[in-house]
């Protein structure tokens, strides 16, 4: 009985993570102006980075749906999340506020980096098998 509950939980979690990254990826195209100020100034090609990030999130989410590509997609999501770390650090350096955009208390930016980001990595790791 416990195995079936875990299988149902993992399936529900899989659908949730796929939906999460599909929405996040699509949002890069729906509201690109939200993401531009979050990309560190020292990185060139802000618009290209935004498009590549959005496409990566969508494609990797789709890859999670299929057993043959699930492990690779999960590992690439983890790599992508690691690649996003400079943006999180940059947001902290800005004090949690970007010019004419997202503004949260600085502690929220820290929680995003130190708590939410590792949870997202663990979530992808759980779905690698």
Quick rundown:
By secondary structure, the chain is mostly helical. The chain has helices at 2-30, 32-35, 46-64, 67-83, 85-93, 106-126.
Question: Which key terms come to mind for this protein?
Answer:
single chain; 129 residues; mainly alpha; 6 helices; globular
Can you describe what's shown?
The chain crosses the membrane at residues 12-30, 42-65, 72-92, 104-126. Keywords: Membrane, Transmembrane, Transmembrane helix. This is DoxX family protein. The chain is 77% helix and 0% strand. The chain is mainly alpha-helical and 129 residues long. The chain has one domain. 12% of the residues are buried. The model has no long low-confidence stretch (mean pLDDT 92).
The averaged pLDDT comes out at: 92
Alpha-carbon distance between the termini?
21 Å
Low-confidence stretches: none
The biggest sheet amounts to:
none
Query: In what range is the share of β-strand residues?
Result: under 5%
State the helical fraction: over 70%
- Count the DSSP helices: 6
Shape: globular
The secondary structure category is mainly alpha
- How many DSSP E strands? 0
């Amino acid at each position: 009985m416990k195995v079936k509950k875990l299988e149902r939980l993992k399936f529900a979690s899989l659908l949730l993570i796929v939906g999460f990254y599909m929405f996040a990826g699509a949002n890069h195209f729906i509201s690109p102006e939200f993401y531009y100020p979050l990309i560190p100034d020292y990185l060139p090609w802000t618009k290209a980075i935004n498009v590549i990030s959005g496409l990566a999130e969508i494609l990797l989410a789709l890859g999670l749906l299929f057993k043959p590509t699930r492990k690779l997609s999960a590992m690439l999501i983890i790599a992508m999340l690691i690649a996003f770390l400079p943006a999180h650090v940059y947001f902290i350096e800005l004090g949690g506020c970007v010019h004419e955009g997202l503004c949260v208390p600085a502690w929220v930016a820290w929680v995003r980096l130190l708590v939410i980001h590792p949870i997202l990595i663990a979530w992808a790791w759980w779905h690698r098998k």
